Structure formats: structure tokens, C-alpha cells
Amino acid sequence: MSNQTQSDTAAGRPTEGRPPEDTNVRIDDITKVFEESDGGEVVAVEDLSIDIRKGEFLVLVGPSGCGKTTTLRTVAGLESPTEGAIRIQGMDVTELDPRERDISMVFQNYALYPHKTVRENISFPLEVRSFPKDETERRVEEAADLLGITELLDRKPSALSGGQQQRVALGRAIVREPAVFLMDEPLSNLDAKLRVQMRTELNELHKRVGKTTIYVTHDQAEAMTLGDRIAVMNDGQLQQIGPPQQLYDRPTNRFVAGFIGEPPMNFLPAELDSTGDGYRVRTEAFDFDLPREKAALLDESGRSPDSVTLGVRPEDIDDASLVESGPNRARFEPYVKLTEPMGSDKFLTLTPEAGEGQELTARVSPDSDAEEDETTTLSANLEKVHLFDDRTGDNLTR
Amino acid sequence: MSNVDETRTPGIDESHERVSYRSRQQFWDLIESPYVVHAVLAFAMMTVLVPFGWELITSFKANSAIYNLNYLPANPTLQTYYNVLIGEGYWKAILNSLLISTSTTVIVLALATPAGYAFSRFRFRFDNLLFIGVIFSRLFPPIGLVVPYYQIMARVGLLDDLLGVTIAQVYLWLPLMIYIMRNFFISIPEELDESARVDGCTRLQAFRKVALPLARPGIAACGILTFLYSWREFLFSLIVTSTLDAMPISVAVFKFVGDVSVSWASMAAASILAIIPTVFIVVFFQRYIVTGLTSGALKG
Amino acid sequence: MATDTQTGPGTHGYSDGLRGRVAKAANEHVVLTMMAPALLVILAIFIYPVTYMVYQSFFLAVPGVPLRFVGLDNYVEMLGSSSFWSYFGHTMFYSFGSLFLTVTGGLTIALAINHVQREYLRNTYSTVLMFSWAIPLAVAALIWNWILQGGEFGLLNMVLTDLGVLDTGYAWLADQTAALVVVTMVDAWARFPFAMIVFLAGLQSIPQHMYDAGDVDGATTFQAFRNITLPYLRPYFAIVGLITWMFAFRAFAVIYPMTQGGPGTATTTLSIYIYRQGMVNLQFGYASAVATFLVGITVIVAAFYVTVVLERIEE
């Protein structure tokens, strides 16, 4: 009798005909504390607040144990926060069961029901909500078509490859047309090649479906390629949230700087001397005058300690003979410990002197003639360097 | 074999090593040889099959022919079976056994499955303590409860009553089956339940629609074990029953041991009748029994 | 209430606050719904009788006479009685004898089966060898009782006299010493398949590459057995050993049908003693005291078992 009502309401299409700005997810100052069996407590997430806009693809990224999965599970309703609230489309869902939230989720191991066929797996969310049969059928066909798994519909999950299982899991998530998709490391079980391919497909899928998505991963490359915005977490705390390029260009602290980018940023202990109208940075490998814009940022930060950590990305160092020298480039002559040709570029492992000093990675042009066990002349782009407070790790030149 | 030896021990004492390695290895190769292995197994099979065979042979003899010193019956007969089943009314004992074992199995499964699931999935107050309590009640020696059970059953009027025997059997096998069911549910990824809940199920629906169908092999193993265990049980059935009204076959066989003499052929026929279902279960459901037993013994 | 229209009043039309509480209550309710029936049944048909047993052990409880509190009298009488200690001795002989035979037999057979290459043969062996465990215990006892009959009629005596080993049949179960050994062996006969199954599971859990590595390192078969097989089987030994011993320590269903504790009291174990005191002499209080003693020992061993099993979880 109320099939129609149900499919309109509990079915998860409440966004239609409503202003877009209130269809979002608000993670409101949540803290999650786990009690251990020995009586101890572990703070998994601390005072986390994030607003996710409608249609946005937000990636939660961080090392394992950083609290990203706990956050996602809290949004899903599989964990309840110790403090704080979750709001979906303006409604407080903190105390609601997962089924009462307008969400669907893709799990790390796909969580396909082994005893059901692909068709039954995909239709399950509709079935438990008593959708009419023809509507269910139509939606399953649509989803299968969208994901290119129509010919697999009558197989069991065990007969599918990893990539196919992944698609079925996605199908089950989109069939309900919920307000929010949650994805918990959905690509981590695929081999490297398939992962890159599925990453592209996920991107396309998101463009076509356009649903708010919260995506958890530990892989920064995945985060960079997928996210409209990325939230970097560490030790249960939000480090920085912003568009990928912003995180790359202007990391808020040393953790984010080291986490985003591959190979990771080089960190060198450095001394900072004021020279009247600017700053001089001295490291084991090279000394240079801080470019004016960076110096201005440093002044703005109001902090200018004597010792800092210098951050230089490997890709901002190149063979001096292959780049034009300029005022904002510093030349130095390190010892080349190891060269790793990658085809498109060449990775150099460097030390200031032969066999001593802190190692440094450079990603230079493949045309560079740097040889192992020799010194070579390199040039660092000073406009892209960062200085971090030794004590707090804050980026002073952001 | 010898080729491998050449490259094997480049030590100082090479020649000595190799000789002693060879001679020791030869001895163990012999121990491991198919002849020895199959001889050991043949002997073991004999200790099992000869008593079974002798019981079977005896059951085809007439009670009066037992004391002829022949291995094989001169006139094989089914008369003893007829006497036992119809004459002595032992069809009732077999029916009792079937009723008791079946209802015990149904009750135990109905109780143990959800309880095992709850132990495998939920954290609640005293959960560990309760679980250790379950392990202890499973290891508890039933002989200790013989006297109180007899007294209680007498008081509530369930002596020599099928219900009384069934209650005792439920006590005997329920804790073990909770334990085994919990281990089976633990082997089903919790992610599947969570997925079901996100897909729109309540916790109870997630149990019913996802975990339960996946636990089918475990439920089968528990059911088969419970049936077998309660079919075999002797002590409580002996105490609670006194006549064929409620006595299962596992106790009834013992009735042929009289004060003065034993009707060996009748006892053999009754024994064979008691054995047939168990052998049938072992042959057809061996895999389930093995999973159930190992899971019951080993998992934490 | 306004927000309710978003998710649909059809499924849950209660306010935010109430909804929270109901949802939470439902979750706790789930544990209760699933757990309570089983736990109530265990409480009623296990905890209650156990309590009754311990309680009664402090009373003079015989039918027809009102209960009389006697404190520790039953225990004092039990511990001071020489027959109690002799039955305790029989129980120890029986349980450790059965333990030894079960573990060595079960392990030997498991190792042998593990060496059989063809799968159908392995299955046949393990299926047939489970028969002696699967049949009703009383039947196992009676089968052997018949084989071991004194005079010339028992199968064993028939064979032995035909082979000329014995002149006349020997009364195996009438001999004070032989009877206890025989019932112990029959107990192990009915018990070894359990050990065999668990050891087989243990042997199959050993990765083949361990033996490959041993081969490369030049280990003899025996060294491989000692350094790979045995360490892997160690937890299995502990568990099989503890379970076997506990179950043999309380065993009733083999001895009672075979000898009823006789000849004399030669095969009377604590279980038989409890049965005789409680069910034949109707000394309910005293029988409960002996039962409490037996239970106490089992609980100590069971605690070891729980530790071993819990250790396995952590591995």
C-alpha cells in the first residue's frame, strides 16, 4: 500500500526538489575513544570537524591508524562517536542505525554476500526496503549497465575477478541512489595496474553520478587523483583539508608536506640567519638567500627561530646544466650515491660529501649526466622550498 | 636423493656427516615407507573392524547357539533381530532414541545459533566472563550432576519421561554447541554484517539474511554432532529412565546384561541396531564431524 | 519533527531524541534477544543443579529423612576413608592410562594417515577409524565385554586357545589387575579417534615449505619431526591431552556396562563410586561431596585448558 511512499522516502531520494546547499555531510567536532580490553583507552579521532558539500568527492587520507577509517565508520553509523555529532542533509543522525542514514558504503574487501548472485547482491539494498519488483529490476539493470557487468549478473561473487567484484560492490552502492557514498579503501586489494584503471573509472563514475562521496585511502596518489578536496589526518587529528594542488603547494605542516608527493619531500636541518633585509638559510648541503616572497611569508608567520627544517621536493631539484640559473635557484655540488633511471626521469640519492651527511633525493631530467660515485652540480628551485618550525612542525612559509 | 646429499653438507666433518646422515635417514625412510604406514593403519583398522564384525556375526546367531565354539553361525538367522525388536519391544527404544536425539538437536540449534552469533559479534558487559562460563559448563563433569538431576527430575515428575531425557541432553550439549557456533560465526567476516546494515538491515535482519545462510555448514556440523552425541549418551539416559517408555537404545542394550547371565546374541543384535545410524552418520557426514570436533577443541 | 519527512515516517516516525534512545535500546535488546534464551536454559538446567550439588554436600541427605546440616562431615568422612583413596587411585590409573594410549595411538595413526598419498584412501582410513568413537559408549563396552568373556566363549579366548597360546580360556574381566587394564584400554579404544582427528588437523596446518626448508638444510626425517612437526603440534598436544584426561577422569560409560566397578572394587573409579553412593545406596549428601571433589579437580584442569586455548587466540 505504501510502496510508492517508501520508494520516495526511505528509498533515499530525498534530495530531489530541495535546495542543494543543505545536502551535505557535517562531521561536527567528533571524538572517538576506544576502550581496550586491558582497561586502557585509545583516542582514535579527536575533535574532528569537516563539512562536505553536495556532490563533492572528499578523500580522507593518512597513515594506518590515523583515524580515517574510524571517521568513515562513524559517518556510516557503524561506530558511534564518543563526543560530537554527524549531520547528513541537515539532520542529526548521530544516534541512528546505518540503515536509517541515507548512505551506502563500499568496503575494503567488498563485502559481497557469497551466497547471493551478483544480481541479488546489487538488489539487496532495494529488496530489504521492499522496492517494487519492476523498479528493482530496472535499477539493477541500469547500475550493471553503467559498470559494464551486465553479463555477470547471474554469477556468484566467488566466480569473479577482483576488479569485477569491485564493480559489483560499486553497483550495490549506487543502486539505491543514496545521498552519500562512503568508500573504505576500495582499491587497496587490487593489483597495481588494475588499481590505476579503477581509479580512472571511479573518477568517471563520480562525474556521471555526481553524488557526495567520502573516500578513505592511505595512498596519497589515489587521494590526489580522486579528491575534489583532501583531508589529511594523522594521530586522530585533521592536519589539513583542501584541494589537492593546495596541499601539494602549500602544506600546512611537515607531516602533510612529507605525506603528499612521491618520492616524499626532503627534510634538512637548517640554520636561519637574519641578514637585515632578508634571511640566509644554511644546510649541510647548501646555503642560500631566502627568496623575497618566502621571506615575507616567514615574517608574516611572526616566528623566525634560529634553527628550522628545510623542505625541498625531489622534483624541485634538477641538473644545473639543464636549467637556466636565476636568482631563485641555488646551485650545489653533492655526491651521487645512487642513480635510478625511471625512464621519464632519473632519481638520484645524494649526500653532501662522499659517504657522509644526510641523504637527499632528487628527481632530475633523464638527460642528466650525473654518475654514481661522482659529484655533480645540481640546482634547487628556491621558490618551492618550505621552512618548518622544528618544534611544532608548522610550515612557516606557507 | 643421493644427488642432493652431495651438495648438502659442505661442513668440516663431511664424510662422517654423510655416512651418519645416510644410515639414520635409511632407518627413517623405512619407518616412513608405505609398507610400514599401511601396516600400522591395517592394524588399527583391525582393532576397530574385528569387534564390529564379531558383533555382527554374533547377532546372526541364535541365543542358544552362542556357546557353540564356532566362529561363524552354523545357521545364520534374523530371528534374534525379530525377537529383540518385536518380542522385547526394542523398536520403542529406537524410536525413543530418534525422538530424543532429534528434539535435542532442534532445541540446541535454536538456542546455540543466536547465542553463538551474539558472542561472536557483540561486546557487552561481562561478555568474556559469560563466555568463559560457557566453556566451563561444557567441561563440567556430568557425573557430578547425576544425583541432583535424579532428585530434580523425580520432583518434577519427569523420571522415565522423554522430556526428562531431552532436558538432560540439552544441558549436556548446549554449551559446546554455543562454543562451536561462535567459532563458526567468527570465521564469517563481520564486514558482511556491516554491509547488510548499511544496505538497510536491522541487526536481527543482518543475522537472519546474511550471517545465518553463510553459517549453514557450521549449523550442519553442530546439528550432526549434537545428534550423534545424544544418540551415544549413556549416563544421564541411564539415570533418568527405567523402562522402555523413555529409554533410548544406548541404554537399552545394557538391559540384556542380566544378574545371572547375558543374552549375548540379543545384545549383539540390539548393539548393531544402535550402531547403524552412527556408522551411517560418520560415513556420510565425516567432513562435518571433523570440522565440528576441531573447531570445538581448538579455537579460542 | 519537521525533519522526519526527509527519511520517511513510514519506517521510523519518532523524534530525534526518542529515536536515538529507541535505536540504542534496540541494539542492546538484540544481544539480550539472542543470548538470553540460551543463558536462561543453562542457568536452569546447569547452574541450578550445580548449586544444589554443592549445597547438598554439606547435608546428611537420604530419602525419607529430613535434611540435616552436617557441615564438613561428608568431606571428612570421604577424605578419611581408605576406599575413597583406593578409588581415587583407580581413577588416576584409568585416566592417565587412557591419556597415554589415546595420545600415542592417536598421534601414530594421524602421522600414518598423513603419509598416505591417495586422498580416497586417507578418507577411508579416517572414516573407518572414527567408528569406535562414534558408536554409543555402552555399546563399545558391551562389544568388548563379549570378546573378553571368560571361559572358552569369548572371541579372544577362542582365538588364543585355537592358536595354542592358552590351554583354557582366561577370565580377563574377573582378574583384579587385568580388569582395570582392560577397561582402560577399551576407554582409549573409544577415545583415540578424537585425538587422531585433532592431530590430523594439526599436521595439515604445518606448511609444506617448512619441510622443504628442512630438506635443503639436510635434516633427517627424525630431525624434521622433532624440529618442525613436534613444535607445530605442541598446542594440539596440550589441548588433546587436557580434554582426554578430563573426560577419562570422569568416565562412567565404559566401566559401568563392562564391570560395574568389579570384580570386587577393582575397577571402581570416583564416577562409579558417586553413582553407587548416590543412585544405589541413596546417600545423596555423601555422593554430592565426592562429586564436588571430582568437579573441583576438573575445574582446576579446565582453568589450564582455558589458558591454553586463550593463548592460541593470541598466536
Automatic annotation (TrEMBL), chain A:
Assigned keywords, A-Z: ATP-binding, Cell membrane, Membrane, Nucleotide-binding, Translocase, Transport
InterPro entries: AAA+_ATPase, ABC_transporter-like_ATP-bd, ABC_transporter-like_CS, ABC_transpr_MalK-like, ABC_transpr_MalK/UgpC-like, Mo/tungstate-bd_C_term_dom, NA-bd_OB-fold, OB_MalK-like
Chief localization: membrane
Keyword flag Kinase: no
Gene3D superfamilies: 2.40.50.100, Nucleic acid-binding proteins, P-loop containing nucleotide triphosphate hydrolases
Domain ABC transporter: 25-260
Reaction(s) catalysed by this chain's protein: L-arabinose(out) + ATP + H2O = L-arabinose(in) + ADP + phosphate + H(+); D-xylose(out) + ATP + H2O = D-xylose(in) + ADP + phosphate + H(+)
Subcellular location as annotated: Cell membrane
GO cellular component: plasma membrane; transmembrane transporter complex
Lipid bilayer topology: Peripheral membrane protein
EC number: 7.5.2.13
A single GO molecular function term of this UniProt record: transmembrane transporter activity
Basic and acidic residues bias (residue ranges): 15-25
Region (Disordered): 1-25, 351-377
Keyword Calcium: no
UniProt subunit comment: The complex is composed of two ATP-binding proteins (XacJ and XacK), two transmembrane proteins (XacH and XacI) and a solute-binding protein (XacG).
UniProt similarity note: Belongs to the ABC transporter superfamily. Carbohydrate uptake transporter-1 (CUT1) (TC 3.A.1.1) family.
Annotated function: Part of the ABC transporter complex XacGHIJK involved in the uptake of xylose and arabinose. Responsible for energy coupling to the transport system.
PANTHER family per the UniProt record, alphabetical: MALTODEXTRIN IMPORT ATP-BINDING PROTEIN MSMX, TREHALOSE IMPORT ATP-BINDING PROTEIN SUGC
Protein name: ABC-type D-xylose/L-arabinose transporter
Organism: Halobium salinum
From TrEMBL, chain B:
Compartment(s) where it occurs, according to its Swiss-Prot or TrEMBL record: Cell membrane
Membrane topology: Multi-pass membrane protein
Keyword DNA-binding set for record: no
Pfam family for this entry, one: BPD_transp_1
Alphabetized InterPro entries for the sequence: BP-dep_ABC_trans_perm, MetI-like, MetI-like_sf
SUPFAM superfamilies named in the record: MetI-like
GO cellular component: plasma membrane
TM region positions: 35-54, 93-117, 129-150, 162-181, 264-285
Domain ABC transmembrane type-1: 94-285
Entries under PROSITE patterns matching the protein: ABC_TM1
Cell membrane keyword on record: yes
Main subcellular localisation: membrane
Key words, A-Z: Cell membrane, Membrane, Transmembrane, Transmembrane helix, Transport
Family of the protein in this entry: Belongs to the binding-protein-dependent transport system permease family.
Protein name listed in UniProt: Carbohydrate ABC transporter permease
UniProt source species: Halobium salinum
Automatic annotation (TrEMBL), chain C:
Membrane topology: Multi-pass membrane protein
Domain of life: Archaea
Residue stretches making up the ABC transmembrane type-1 domain: 88-305
TM segment ranges: 29-48, 92-113, 125-148, 179-203, 236-256, 286-310
GO cellular component: plasma membrane
UniProt entry keywords in alphabetical sequence: Cell membrane, Membrane, Transmembrane, Transmembrane helix, Transport
Localisation: Cell membrane
Pfam family, one: BPD_transp_1
InterPro entries named among the record's database cross-references: MetI-like, MetI-like_sf, UgpAE/MalFG_permease
Homology family: Belongs to the binding-protein-dependent transport system permease family.
Descriptive protein name: Carbohydrate ABC transporter permease
